[in-house]
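Question (not urgent): is this output format expected?
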Amino acid sequence: MAYRWSITLITSILVLFLAFVLLYGQPFSDDVEPGAKEIQTVTVETSAINERPSVQALEPQKLADMIDKSAENTRADELFYNTLPLSLRDTPRPTALGVDEDEELIADHRVRNLFEYYLTAIGEEPLDRIISRIQHDLSGQLDGIALEQANQILEGYLQYRNNMAVIKNQFVNQYGNQTYNLDVVKEMKSALRESRYGFLSEDVIIGFFKQEDQYDDYMMARVGVSSDSSLSGAEKEQLINQLDQHSPQWIIEASQRANLVSNVRTKEKHLRAEGATEDEIYSIRQQAYGVEGAENLRALDEQRAKWRRLVDLYRVDLNSMIASVGGSSNIDDELLNSLRSQYFEGPELIRIKAIDKVELGL
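Got this back:
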């Protein structure tokens, strides 16, 4: 039992860790339906890697042609650029980019964040339109050599991001039938890091990935200690303390916040199981996060409850539709979309499509 518990703990840590680290490696696809980006994002958990399908990547030249063509259309209708996809509306815009005293681009996390801001809409609109939005944003902030540098980095980043799908598929094919192995995860992360140099310069890699790699190394080391059966509990604690002492302060603070959140959630779960009132739950949250944090979580609970009620009502009508046509495979897409639109709109519509695809195969 202890062994199984240990494996479960390690796997859970890896899922959270690699979901954070590998989130930006979502591949590109010409025919991704709305909501499919949630399905295609690959979290590399090798104990279940054989259960995950291969993901589609574009041919590098096709992606390059798409970037060139999008660049030619950056002077298109301003209404298009000013009207964001639904999932991005009412969201904070990325932080403004910076240039140095020589008017050259400062290639740091702000550049990557700008790219990813628009790329989160993959599935909601075609990739070429997303690229056009990015290039338009760049041209609105930069000019001269800085703009040229930004566009070169954009192509390299998109090619790297696309190539991540190729690497992931290689590991799926190579290790698909193996059980959990931390060494496989390390090997894959190493391959991903090395591949960056084929698309981006070293200074860009540092600016884009320094913190991500620091967190990556920290978590790998921590999981390695936790999974070492030759160490006693006291020895593991000592090594983890040493690891914390030599890690960047921002990682330690993030880890402490994560531990706080985990502990509070555990307390909430026990309290709810014992029949605690919402006021008692609020009190626990207020002690941990303050009044503002507790209020934000209360609002989030209300949103989640509203969503669950809406989904329950929708599923009643959906089940009736499925029964009336003799099975989900016989549902007319137009009627299904019409039903969804009666209950959902904007990002919620994208979300329910993804849920239906995963849970019902629709």
